[in-house]
Amino acid sequence: MQRNAMKMFTSCGWFFDEISGIETNQILQYALRAIKYAEQTTGVDLHPKFLKRLRNAPSNVYENGASSYEMHVLPAELGLRRVGMHYAVSSLFEKHPKRLELFRYIAESDFYERLEQGNMKIAVGRTVLKSKNTYSEKHFSFAVLYLGQQNIFGSISKDMSQKEFDSMHESLFEAFRSTNLGDVISLTQQYFGKETYTIWHLFRDEKRKILRQISRASMGRSEAAFRELYKDNYQLMTGMLRSNIPVPSAFKSAAQYVINTDLHRFFLKDHLYIDDLKHLVTELEKWDFKIDNEKSFKLAASERLFYEIRKIASVEASIEHLQLLNQIFEQLNQIGVELDVWKSQNMYFSMTQGFQRGNWEFSSDEWRDAFLKLGEHLDMKIEKKVVEEV
Question: What does the radius of gyration of the chain's CA atoms come to, in whole angstroms?
Fold first, then answer.
């Protein structure tokens, strides 16, 4: 019987001088996927021969091509079992966990239950995992335990009977409700075996997503604690500052975190209130703090100001709106923030041309003066006499 060979070509495969490079590893991931598809459809495992060939490929970094492949490519292999692990862990943090799409798969649970106690969670389920590409399916049962922070432990089985699952479900939940975590872990091993997985077994993107979810919850609690420390000790800190007594670093750290957090959020709010910005600038100067993550802050401020300046061109902006923009620029100049305003400059220049052509008219001298002032903040040198002729 003659078998047709499957060939794959990608343009970047012809341009490399090191087999462990990012381009080559990406191509080797394609090759691994093709090998797995071939095994699923024909029952022939091409992987041993492929690995043997890679051992003959030289590398300037590793012992040979196979070493790099085993270190960088195999851990990224996307299989039904590993996607099942992803689903089990992700379900702990989803609002509607019974049906999720992960990568090119759909996970749908015939049964799913999650129980929470404080910061800890446990979930068990019987799930069907379907591939959107090959339409292959795999049924599996799982149990996953979350102990807070990044501590996640799970187990998965492809052949657990319904009777075993029901017994496992009842036993695990009873032990969890009684807060006997030792029994929970012991029972998990009893039903699933000793092989477990943790968050570190997940793929990089999914792992980052879950860690971000966990960190957001932790940061919310941390922020509340910092705010309480800052407010409760504000008068004491002020008195120490005026008396030239060193302020404890714990107090200053809390103050710096709160002030910077509020400063970064200012340009994300629906409405900009100048008094809020003035207060934050005053606090920043009072305690001699620097802006944390200044690059991100400048980007957010620049984009929001462009959005606000664009309103002038699309609607009849009030004099109060122009004055607000000028005051914001003044406050930012006061703390030495240099914005990236090229988009705002282009917009302002376009508006200036509109006035000069007679397409637009100034509603009042006060409005015109505020408009010219905005141009100064944008470093646009428009002479007053030019617009006075309008």
Answer: 31
Locate tokens 């998965």: which residue?
A: 156
Cα torsion angle, 257, 261, 263, 264, sign: positive
pTM: 0.57
Question: Beta strands 137-146 and 152-157: pairing type?
Answer: antiparallel
Mean pLDDT score across all residues of the chain: 84
* Angle between helix 204-232 and 249-266 (nearest 10): 120
End-to-end CA distance of the chain: 88
117/45 Cα distance (integer angstroms): 46
> For residue 4, is pLDDT > 80?
no
Q: How many CA atoms lie within 13 A of 252 on its CB side?
A: 12
In angstroms, rounded to a whole number, what is the distance separating the alpha carbons of residues 23 and 5? Answer: 23
Question: Is the pLDDT confidence value at 244 over 80?
Answer: yes
d(CA 24, CA 65): 10
Q: What secondary structure letter does DSSP report for 363? A: S
Q: Parse the chain into domains and list their residue ranges.
A: 11-76, 80-201, 226-388
* Burial of 56 per CB tally in 10 Å (0-12, 13-18, 19+): exposed
d(CA 390, CA 357): 8
pLDDT (tens digit per residue) in 49-61:
988 888 888 888 8
Residue 200 DSSP symbol: G
- Per-residue model confidence (pLDDT) at position 390: 47
Q: How many CB atoms lie within 10 A of CB 180?
A: 13
Q: What is the C-alpha to C-alpha distance for residues 123 and 38, in angstroms, rounded to an integer?
A: 34
Give the model confidence (pLDDT) of 151-191 as tens digits. 888 888 888 999 999 999 999 999 999 888 888 888 988 88
- 139: nearest Cα among 113, 157, 154: 157
DSSP H helices in the chain: 22-42, 47-55, 65-68, 80-91, 162-177, 181-192, 204-232, 234-242, 249-266, 274-286, 294-314, 319-334, 342-356, 365-377, 384-388
